[in-house]
Design goal:
The chain is of the alpha/beta class. It contains twelve helices and 21 strands. It has helices at about 15-25, 40-45, 50-60, 65-70, 90-95, 105-115, 235-250, 300-320, 325, 330-350, 360-375, 375-385, and strands spanning about 5, 5-10, 30-35, 50, 70-75, 75-80, 85-90, 100, 120, 125-130, 140-145, 145-150, 155-160, 175-190, 200-205, 210-215, 220-225, 260-275, 280, 280-285, 290. Bound molecules: arabino-flavin-adenine dinucleotide and P-hydroxybenzoic acid.
Length: about 400
Amino acid sequence: MTERTQVGIVGAGPAGLLLSHMLHLAGVESVVFERGNREHVGTRLRAGGLEHGAVALLERVGLGARMRKLALSVAATDFRFDGCGHRVDFRAITGHPFTIYPQYEIVSDLLEARAAAGGEVRFDTPVRRIDGLESARPVIHYEAGGSVRRLECDFIAGCDGYHGVCRQAIPASVQRVFEENYPFGWLGILAEVAPPSLEVAYACHERGFAMQSFRAPTISRMYLQCPPDDRADNWSDERIWSELALRLDVPDRPPVARGPIVQKSVTAMKSFVVEPLSYGTLFLAGDAAHIVPPTGAKGLNSAMADIALLAPAFAAFYRTGRREGLDGYSAACLRRTWQVQRFAAEMCTLLHRFPGASDYAWRLQREKLAYMTGTATGMRTYAESFVGLPFEP
Ligand code: FAS
Ligand code: PHB
């Protein structure tokens, strides 16, 4: 017997869960398939910062309660280079803060909301393939209880991240891929120690990029540029703390604070966009559609911005039968996506030490940083991109 629903969603990350939640609010039925288990999905560390558009969206869809209690508001970014700190007060410039509210808290809020509404999120249920995208009844083939089963739907939302199966279902003759792999990665740590200040700090240093962020007033989240194929177990705690201090410490700022490191991981740096973001009855959103280096804190925010477009498009179709939102989704999403790609790639290029770069290129990098942090125009350009572009209503 073939099951049916209106929107089949592949992936229970922020994109898939937010879509399922917003569709429920609009009276549209969905089923979410997730290959991981609930524990894994609910505790993945990943992103930490929200643009004002993302905060407003979560408030609008009834997910603001815990965020208002736990989130931390950040007013400025401190750029460390040439031996001192250069602070850009993006809140004073734009009127908007950057909000630290970890991705795992957002996912937890979404899982709770779906459960309270009786939403169908099927964990440990990998989707093997999708097909029938050119028909009015696409099918999700998923594995459960040792066999592959079918779910028929009106539409499929591919929210299955960069390594998912949905993007692969768009014919190679139709899709265009744009990607850039960077010659470095990030070693990320979570440490039980209060950050020296509740501001984000980036270091552009001869030895490489480093960054100070946080997840709570007593939990620091920090990053170090490392070789792209590096491994977390190559880094002892002592080596991490001394390298962070070498790159981040400057005389006019409080020094790096040490504490117990509770998590270490290496993330590769990539920029990636696939075009188009829809094909027949398939719509891609989030990391399934685009990836940015985390230097601009845009990955999670872009996933949410996609859903801010896609959910109302589905809702309008079921309410009125009109397809404008769905037909215009890919182009509208890509307009915003490429602006985000520009900012994230610029910040990545500006802040990292590129192996083999000429002395001229390295000196020019710091001159660009001095312009961005030392002139009104430079600071405004950075601030407007960092706090985020408007989210579509
Ligand atoms: P996700 O990858 O979160 O979710 C996709 C889901 O689909 C996963 O749960 C996966 O298990 C599931 N799935 C995949 N294939 C499936 C299949 N065949 N069947 C069923 N389910 C399937 N962004 C920032 O802004 N700042 C950061 O500091 C930052 N750090 C990051 C660190 C790491 C290690 C990674 C990987 C990403 C980081 N990101 C960061 C980006 C990250 O937050 C993503 O942008 C965000 O998770 C995107 O959400 P989704 O699109 O929902 O994709
Ligand atoms: C984070 O807190 O993980 C973070 C903050 C700002 C960035 C990147 C990552 O630009």
